[in-house]
Amino acid sequence: MAGWRHPEFRRGVQEMSGIALGIAAWGLITGVAMVKSGLPVPIAVLMSLLVFAGTAQLAALPLMASGAPIWVVWATALCLNLRFVIFSAQWRPYIAHLPLWKRARWAYFTADLNYVVFMRRFPDPKPSPEQAPYFWGGSITNWFAWQVPSMVGIFFGEAIPTQWGMGFAGTLALIGLMCSLLADKASVVAAAVAGCAAVAAYALPLKLNVVVAIAAAVAIGLLLDHTTPKPVLPVDDET
What we know:
Blueprint: H1 7-17, H2 20-36, H3 41-51, H4 54-65, H5 70-80, H6 83-95, H7 100-109, H8 112-121, H9 131-156, H10 166-179, H11 185-200, H12 208-227
Helix pairs in contact: 1-9, 2-4, 2-9, 2-10, 3-9, 4-5, 5-12, 8-9, 11-12
């Protein structure tokens, strides 16, 4: 891995390690959920390694188990992962100069929280030599913090009693991760609207209340972005 000796690589590891416990808890819950839903162990392992998106995995599992149409499964996963379209637009100034295969690697390893810590570390949207080592330090830490507990949940999930309340623990872990992403008024309002919409549409079949909540959050987010006054940049009078 290029730059693993770089100080920024170590910094990325350290800053991601501070939130790795919550990531690990959610990875464990996802691994357990996959085998508890009846998914064969090899398929569960493949899903964890290839999909690498806990929220989408957990949303798709009950749909698959209930025999929902494939389009509903795909639509739900797509809606849940629409945020990565926004992430990719934010990444563009940093990595647009890289070859396609390198950008594809970044895309696979990008997750919610390593995106957040990266943008906090490099708020100026332009490439610099320190960015790649920092990204890989955080991303590798994030990947192992997710995959190792997920594999533990997959291989030992059947031995974990359902009455342990692991689902509730996973919900608490997800709430903790979500709260770390609420950085401004718009994100708080969007999260509140999504929560209200999910509860209001709870009676819908096939977990479609999740899709309704996502649509509501995206709509209110776009509305707030459109109506919020943009800062006026100073005009240079020199010609």
